[in-house]
TrEMBL record:
Record's GO cellular component terms: plasma membrane
Keyword Protein transport in record: no
Biological process annotations from GO: transmembrane transport
Subcellular location: Cell inner membrane; Cell membrane
Residue spans crossing the bilayer: 12-33, 61-87, 99-123, 129-150
Organism of origin: Vreelandella sulfidaeris
Keyword Transport appears in the UniProt entry: yes
Protein name: ABC transmembrane type-1 domain-containing protein
Domain ABC transmembrane type-1 residues, every copy: 61-192
CDD domains per record: TM_PBP2
């Protein structure tokens, strides 16, 4: 009886939280798709409001998509080799570099943004460009990529797999792209 009551209370709380989060989104979608929000669905469906928002913010949306794709590409191109280098290095400095790479996770995002503005704020052309935003995003997301890929690399028995590929005559490039990358794909996808 006690466990059933507990389950019912947990389910009720979960449903309330879901409603609290879903209802505003559903109302926003309904406001964007109905002719008159106050009348509701009886006023008819339209894409007029969506079109107006698109005309106002299309450039911003496309810039956001381009920045996200560029950030994804850069963090992948830097993060995967960095994680591989940290995995293969048995030196003490590798731990220090890993800690430095993870530092942006510990520092609040607002503090990182303020630091970027203080350091590069005097360069007006750079500060006003999309490149400035991209660098900020890369600095913020790179630790997540490195950590996710490094975690997968540490559990995937990569040294044995690489050794087996090397014994079959695979070059470093073939081992990296044929063994390391496929075995780390879950970490790469998680880091994105």
């Amino acid at each position: 009886m006690k466990s059933r009551l507990r389950f019912t209370l947990q389910l009720g709380f979960t449903l309330l939280v879901c409603l609290f989060m879903i209802v505003p989104v559903a109302m926003s979608v309904m406001a964007g798709l109905t002719e008159n929000y106050f009348v509701g669905l009886q006023s008819g469906l339209t894409l007029r409001w969506v079109n107006e928002v698109w005309q106002l913010y299309a450039d911003t949306i496309w810039l956001s998509i381009k920045l996200a794709l560029a950030c994804l590409l850069i963090t992948t191109l830097i993060g995967v080799p960095a994680a591989y280098g940290l995995l293969r290095s048995r030196r003490r400095w590798a731990n220090a570099i890993e800690e430095l790479l993870l530092l942006p996770v510990a520092v609040p995002g607002l503090a990182t943004a303020l630091a970027l503005l203080l350091v590069y704020g005097s360069y007006r052309e750079f500060r006003g460009s999309w490149l400035f935003i991209l660098i900020g995003h890369v600095l913020f997301t790179l630790p997540f990529m490195v950590r996710a890929v490094l975690s997968v690399m540490q559990t995937a028995k990569l040294p044995q797999l690489e050794e087996a590929a090397a014994s079959l005559g695979a070059s470093f490039r073939q081992r990296f792209f044929g063994v390391v990358i496929p075995n780390c794909m879950s970490g790469i996808l998680a880091g994105r």
